[in-house]
Design a protein that fits this description.
There is one protein chain. The chain is of the alpha/beta class and 171 residues long. The strands form 2 sheets. It has a 4-stranded mixed sheet with strand order 4-7-5-6, with helices on both faces. Strand 1, helix 1 and strand 2 form a beta-alpha-beta unit.
């Protein structure tokens, strides 16, 4: 059995790779998925054979000696998306102005922790900063994280949020 620690954004792709690997070799892969900030802690606790995460996170882990230096293999690209609760109108995000209007007119919004490096929250912050709406967005939004944000959407407690597409279940 191979043990793997990875950021949660890669779960869908890695489970697919693991299934193919198991069929070809007869060996299984066990996983620990978490947010990027917990990679180092999960490496220490789980002693994995393989670590997967953002390129910059892996580079930092190599520099600190937490992972063995070796070739890095790109596995997947993860895009950021706008997700909305069921029944909420699909926002028009086709232009920068339409994006700003859609985000700022949503009554209840959520976002991931913007202070975690290599996270969807940090990417969201960059996008909203470039759009000139970060401060007003944060002032009226809830910091929930993807899992709790999805639950809030399902319960109708939020209307719109940002998350890695790979973690959205098509919402």
């Amino acid at each position: 059995e191979l043990k793997m620690v990875s950021s949660a954004a890669l779960e869908q792709a890695l489970r697919s790779f693991a299934d193919s690997y198991a069929k070809k070799t007869g060996n299984t892969v066990s996983f620990v998925f978490s947010n990027p900030a917990d990679l180092e802690k999960n490496i220490a606790e789980n002693h994995p054979d393989i670590v997967a995460g953002a390129t910059s996170a892996i580079a930092d882990l190599k520099k600190s000696g937490k992972v063995v230096s070796g070739p890095a293999v790109p596995l997947a690209r993860v895009g950021l998306g706008v997700i909305v609760r069921q029944g909420y109108p699909t926002p028009d995000i086709s232009t920068p102005e339409a994006f700003k209007k859609a985000v700022m007119s949503a009554p209840r919004v959520f976002y991931n922790n913007i202070d975690l490096p290599n996270s969807s929250g940090a990417v969201t912050a960059k996008i909203l900063t470039k759009a000139g709406i970060l401060k007003p967005f944060l002032a009226r939004g809830k910091q929930l994280g993807t899992r709790d944000g999805k639950i809030a959407l399902q319960k109708g407690e939020t209307d719109l949020g940002f998350a890695n597409i790979s973690e959205t279940d098509g919402q």
